[in-house]
Amino acid sequence: MLNLTWVAFFLTFLVWYNIAAFKTTIAKALGLSLEQSDTLLLCNLALTIPARIGVGMLVDRFGPRRVFAWVLFFAAVPCLIMALSNQFWQMIVCRLAISCVGAGFVVGIRLVAEWFDKREIGMAEGIYGGLGNFGMAAATFGLPLLGAMFSKTNGWRWAIGLSGAVCIVWGVVYYLCAKDAPPGREFKRPRKKGALEVTSRGDLAGLVVMQVPMVLCLGIMTWRLVHVKFLPALASVPVYVLLAALLVQQIYKILHVNASVIRGEPVPPEERYAFSQVAILCLCYAVTFGGELAVEQMLPEYFENMFKVSVAIAGVMAAGFAFANFIARPLGGILGDHLGRRPIMIVTLAGSAAGFFGITLIHPSWSLPAAMAMVVVVGLFLMAANGANFCIAPLIRKPLTGQIAGLIGAYGSVGSVLFTTVKLLMGPKGFFISMAIIGTATFACCFMLREPGQKPVERPSGFAPTFPAVPVQSEVELA
Predict the structure, then answer these.
(1) How far apart are CA 68 and CA 59, in angstroms?
(2) What is the pLDDT of residue 319?
(3) 174 pLDDT exceeds 60?
């Protein structure tokens, strides 16, 4: 099940990032300006945010087998259309559709959580995430080589089209071979549909507030489309109104699903969990995975311009950043399993923030190996943090794992959209400095994390909660 699933995840990321290494090539072929080319990269991230929320709900309801197969079948369509596109608007539509494919990551988190227990969950999720995320590296250095085998001018079309065709094949394999849960174990579904369930009024307020940045990112995307004259300014008004209505509708769903919390009805002890832990993991993922996505998209062009190398060499240099996934993400999960998930989260966030400051020091006078080494070190910390994150998330509340992973994953895309926007406004130097500052603030928030299974000790009103020395058994252990 793990092997079937990481390959599916690998293919979704291969498709999601099949444009990064061809950015300058496509711009020359279609006569795109720098702003139009940058907007394509932003479109590549935009709809991942609502897609991850939606896919998280679908996987909890219908099961990973069917949902992952649907995602793979869908991924092939915009890839094949993009391979035949000759207009900027066609590319925009295709990249917006492909941005939804990035939601496939959420599906595997739930499936892996079903097949592995608490003692191995970090290692299993780390292997899933590490090998799957390598799809980014394969897209960055593999697809240009594949395209060169067909044509120097239209090789990018062959590479993008073939990446979609492979998704169809594996979608069939996954649908026929995967299973939602081990034999004899029930695949638990949430009691209510439409929004994430929380267990206190404070958590409910936090969940409502966390909807705002996600809709804000969609507003930023609309603004960019107006700025590059893809949308007339007047046409953007109904889009903004629609986004506002979407926010109101989402808040209504949250309040409706959690009406019993608003009324103050007691929540059974086995259903309680601290949403604050989910919120902290969302912030961490926005910095680590969001930073990873944003950096992965801009590094090939950044190295191409700084060191005056070819597209292929720049792609290989940038791939070192994603190549760290092979080691770092599984390592972050394994260390979390054995040394404690909270300490590993703190250490990896500290290294990530320091690494972003380090990248700002890269200069054309540096040798290519030195620049690649710096990038790989930063990638190691970022991806180890991703592994540590998802050895915590599946243990928070089992029946809600898809929705929790969807929310955390959506914030990864929120981070990437915001960081990419900063890059457009402030350039590469401001981009890395802003990531370093936000990473430092997130590192401080990690000290409020708890080890999964620990719950606050009940105290009379007026006393601050403390934590017990003996961890409470997880759902997996009780089962």
Answers:
(1) 8
(2) 65
(3) yes
**Contact, 288 vs 378, CB < 8 A?**
no
Q: Write the CA distances from 282 to 66, 206, 409, integer angstroms.
A: 26, 12, 7
Residues in the chain, total? 479
Q: Are 106 and 56 in contact (CB under 8 A)?
A: yes
Confidence at residue 312, expressed as pLDDT on a 0 to 100 scale: 66
- Please provide residue 228's backbone torsions phi and psi, each rounded to the nearest 5 degrees: -95, 10
Single-letter amino acid code for the residue at 25: T
Euclidean distance between CA atoms 455 and 465, whole angstroms: 9
Q: Please report, for residues 32, 147, 294, 374, 455, the alpha-carbon distance to residue 21 in angstroms, rounded to integers and kept in the order given.
A: 16, 11, 13, 20, 46
> How many whole angstroms separate alpha carbon 121 and alpha carbon 330?
10
pLDDT at 462 over 60: no
- Residue at token pair 């995430």: 129
- Give me the torsion for CA of 329, 335, 340, 344, rounded to 10°: -50
The rounded distance, in Å, linking the Cα atoms of 390 and 288 is: 12
Three-state DSSP at 51 gives: helix
| Token pair in block for residue 89 | 């608007």
Distance CA 209, CA 251 (A): 9
Query: Cα dihedral angle (216, 222, 226, 227), rounded to 10 degrees?
Result: 50
d(Cα 36, Cα 229) in Å, to the nearest integer? 9
Q: What angle do CA 414, 438, 213 make, to 5 degrees?
A: 30
pTM: 0.78
- The two tokens of residue 280 are 């902290």
Residue that is written with structure tokens 């900027």 in the block: 88
Q: Give, as one character, the DSSP assignment of residue 21.
A: G
Least confident range from 128-137, 214-223, 304-313: namely: 304-313
Give the number of other CB atoms < 10 A from CB of residue 466: 9
Which residue bears the tokens 């540590």?
Answer: 388
Q: For the chain, list the domains and their CATH numbers.
A: 2-181+193-450 (1.20.1250.20)
**Alpha-carbon gap, residue 444 to 321, rounded angstroms:** 25
CA atoms within 13 A on the CB side of 445: 18
Q: What number of H helices and E strands is found in the chain? A: 21, 0
- The pair of three-digit structure tokens given for residue 369, joined into one six-digit string: 């190996």
Alpha-helical (H) ranges within 100-154 are 104-115, 121-137, 143-150
Q: How far apart are CA 55 and CA 397, in angstroms?
A: 17
158: alpha, beta or left, given left = phi > 0 and alpha = psi -120 to 50? alpha
**Sequence-separated (6 or more) residues with CB below 8 Å from residue 308:** none
Whether 321 has a pLDDT exceeding 50, the answer reads yes
Retrieve residue 287's tokens: 């910095």
- Which ranges of 308-400 would DSSP assign to H, the alpha helix? 311-323, 325-339, 341-359, 368-389
